[in-house]
Design goal:
Largest sheet: 8 strands, antiparallel
CATH superfamily of the largest domain: Glucose Oxidase, domain 3
Strand content: 15-25%
CATH architecture of the largest domain: 2-Layer Sandwich
Number of strands: 20
CATH topology of the largest domain: Glucose Oxidase, domain 3
Distance between the termini: 52 Å
Number of helices: 8
Structural class: alpha+beta
Number of domains: 2
Order of helices and strands: EEEHEEEEHEHEEEEHHEEEEEHEHEEH
């Protein structure tokens, strides 16, 4: 069913996504939070800076973060001292990498990389999970999609003029405008699959749009049980870590992927869409058995850019931070980003991550008042 919006408790149905946008431009966290504070005397922003590791002290009897080592531009590494706290906000990939490079994580991993173990926290870099989107493609008739508009000179000029004069149209939109939520089976307590519907199609991200009119209804599992990890490969901060998502590594996730594709077909076969004569191109009408659909899901599946969980909050032996986002056993060190989510949200992660940042700021201010 059509609903007004997704944020009223029960998101079952379809609606347009809410967007971070103002006057036709993406309104990022930088524009909303950083730029208004850019002229404050107590704020310095350094660009082209690469953090290498965290500095620690034990002179209080407890391991304490006292600064970071970072390179700015082509300059040699410099130690930046922290008078209050060190805050990591490098995301679900960068934050665990920095902790591991600094000697916080699995002792076995750190010893293998010849890094001194400062704190044994086995959960650092573990519990990585994401929303895997399975991208079906349907050719459509009797309508105009972005494929046609973007592949013609007139279409490009029209889109440019609409943006120039009205700050509206395709040049203001995210890839997915329409969304929908549903249950993959009746036993689910709430919607556990989500569609991101795009008025365009392409073979893969970065490729040109197809020359024919088509849409891409991508379906994802909102509560995946598959877990992966982020682990450093060397002690060099310049080297990328090893990232393993382990998508579709549990039978539960395999079942949801197959049912998601079947549900997509059911929607595209609905009477309301008959006039558009949808023709399934991917995975293709010849793909019918559960085994074939699962294989197609593995081929068509791709990240939706929602990685979380690698510095999870909690009190168990795999938890990295407490409920105030402080790293267990280390003073003056917090992680404030999507990596602290123990489990991924049943929806897009942008707004929840902004909430984590706002709550983290509250915790910092409260700690300063208490001390």
């Amino acid at each position: 069913p059509k609903i007004a919006e997704f944020n009223r408790g029960d998101n079952f149905g379809n609606a347009y996504f809410q967007m971070n946008q103002r006057r036709g431009k993406r309104w990022s966290a930088t524009k909303a939070y950083l730029r208004p504070a850019a002229n404050r005397g107590n704020l310095t922003v350094l660009t082209h800076a690469h953090v290498e590791r965290i500095e620690f002290s034990t002179h209080t009897g407890q391991l304490q973060a006292t600064g970071i080592h970072a390179r700015v531009g082509n300059n040699p590494s410099h130690l930046f001292h922290a008078h209050q706290e060190v805050l990591l906000a490098a995301g679900a990939i960068g934050s665990p990498q920095l902790l591991q490079l600094s000697g916080i994580g699995s002792g076995k991993l750190l010893q293998e990389k010849e890094i001194t173990v400062r704190a044994e926290l086995a959960g650092v870099g573990e519990n990585l999970h994401d929303h895997l989107q399975v991208r079906s493609v349907y050719e459509v008739k009797n309508t105009v999609t972005l494929n046609q508009r973007a592949n013609s000179l007139f279409g490009k000029l029209a889109m440019g003029a609409e943006y120039l004069f009205f700050k509206s149209g395709p040049l203001t939109m995210p890839p997915s405008q329409l969304g929908a939520f549903a249950k993959s089976d009746p036993d689910q307590p709430s919607a556990n699959i989500e569609w991101h519907v795009q008025p365009l199609s392409l073979d893969k991200f970065g490729d040109p749009l197809h020359t024919f009119n088509a849409i891409t209804p991508s379906v994802c599992n909102l509560r995946p049980s598959s877990r992966g990890h982020v682990r450093i490969k060397t002690s060099n901060a310049e080297d990328y870590p090893a990232i393993s998502l382990n998508y579709l590594s549990t039978s539960e996730d395999e079942t949801v992927a197959v049912r998601g594709l079947q549900f997509t077909r059911k929607i595209m076969a609905a009477k309301a869409l008959e006039q558009f004569k949808p023709k399934e191109l991917k995975p293709g009408s010849d793909i019918q058995t559960d085994e074939q659909l699962l294989s197609a899901a593995r081929d068509l599946g791709t990240t939706i850019f929602h990685p979380v969980g690698t510095c999870k909050m909690g009190n168990d032996n795999m938890a990295v931070v407490n409920d105030r986002l402080q790293v267990h056993g280390i003073k003056n060190l917090r992680v404030i980003d999507a990596s602290v989510m123990p489990r991924i949200t049943s929806g897009n992660t942008n707004a929840p991550t902004v909430m984590i940042a706002e709550k983290g700021a509250e915790f910092i201010l409260k700690s300063r008042k208490e001390n």
